[in-house]
Amino acid sequence: MADYFESSDEAVENGNDTDLGSGGALVLPDLSDGAGHTMHLAVGAGKNSNLYVVNRDSMGTFSANNSGIYQELDGALPGGIRSMPAYFNGTMYYGPVGSPILAFKITNAKLSTSPVAHTSNSFSYPGATPSVSANGTSNGIVWAVENNGPAILHAYDAATLAELYNISNDVGAVKILGALFL
Questions:
Q1: Cα(first)–Cα(last) distance of the chain, in Å?
Q2: Structural domains in the chain?
């Protein structure tokens, strides 16, 4: 193993089942910081509601105060994460448990400290796994499935997270959705 990151309160998190392992890590494209340096970053989150950004060239290992981590947003993801995030055009999308999908803008290789946009609806357990479709870098749509009772597929504008459309899992809706992708 060449490098790793472990949060400073890992023993408490493991004992309370609020560990980092419930959400996947996402490798970001190369980003430029304010000084013009190219940063190689990855983001991750878990059940503890914190969002972590690590420098893939020096992930931070373990320290008693997380001093080696690139960026930590404490409590940024209420309800915690049990899914992967999505990335599009300098924005990270997370779907925490019991919360709306949250968008965090990346500027100078740092995430905004609070969401810049959120969906109007929330997603109960296990939250949402957003995904993005687009025409290159334009016309981005964030997709997510709501799993309450009948599943509902939501489509949101990637820039504002305003809902564009939603469709339940009835047969007619599935036919319409299938026609959209033909």
A1: 45
A2: 5-180 (2.40.128.630)
